[in-house]
Amino acid sequence: MHRIAIGPGGEFSLGGENFVIDVSPKDRRPSTSDTFTIVKNEPYLRVYEQLAAGFSPRSILELGIFQGGSYVLLDKLFKPRRMSAVEISPQPVEPLLRYIAAMEGRFVHFSTSQCDREILGQIVRDELADELDLVVDDASHTYEQTKAAFEFLFPLLRPGGAYVIEDWSWAHAPRYQSPDAPLAKRRALSNLLFEQIMLMGSTSLIAEIRVWKFLYLIRKTETAFGRSEAGKAEGGSIFDQILSRGREWSLI
Ligand SMILES: C[S@@+](CC[C@H](N)C(=O)[O-])C[C@H]1O[C@@H](n2cnc3c(N)ncnc32)[C@H](O)[C@@H]1O
Predict the structure, then answer these.
(1) Average pLDDT over residues 207-230
(2) Is the CB of residue 69 below 6 angstroms from any atom belonging to ligand 1?
(3) Of 16, 92, 201, 215, which has the highest C-beta tally within 10 A?
(4) What is the CATH number of the domain that holds 200?
(5) How many domains does the chain contain in total?
(6) Ligand 1 in contact with 106 (CB < 6 A)?
(7) 179 CA from centroid of ligand 1 (Å)
């Protein structure tokens, strides 16, 4: 397994590209022509490294790219045939656009929400050749938008594919506990993980869910139920398949 060597200032190189880790809460450094900024610290990098050692996705879709460092990292680690991403910010990241322009099958969409079903559908079909094997969601981290993206994209994921959701546990960190903390009025993203566990129990859609404190990975079942079972999402939600003995649960 390739092990990335991370310097004391969070700098590292991979596949001929330079990166620097910047996880400060604001005023993060912009990517430059020779170094991409990435908002993932070492534990995240180790999980992706480990995943890449045994998994070769044909196509990757990333949600939320900020300065593009994670896009380039995923590209270098997994070496997919095709890769695309959406980012809600309208501000193009020039170093990333130059990186993409020099390669085949690489795309990015600024001013695009992770909930935009029409664009996500076009991306999977036209840019990713309907071979979506890996989704990495590091976008809004809100329950509603993360769920909306999953409801649409998980049925499009190929059997055996992986869907990663980062930073699911934010609502349980000490700094989010006060009434005036960021996202204090929003539902916790961990609600979605509980619902996905219920979906796993209720259907044959999900083979495994691996949970770390800072991200989790949902592996789609290998067997060929394809889009027919997952496709119940059409017109409804994939979560309509949860069997809960008719009981309601409440969100925190
Ligand atoms: C934590 S940053 C991403 C960091 C990047 N993945 C990395 O590791 O370097 C989250 C990004 O998601 C974007 N974002 C927030 N809400 C979004 C949404 N609804 N759809 C798409 N992108 C969104 C933000 O603008 C921000 O750039």
Answers:
(1) 83
(2) yes
(3) 215
(4) 3.40.50.150
(5) 1
(6) no
(7) 24
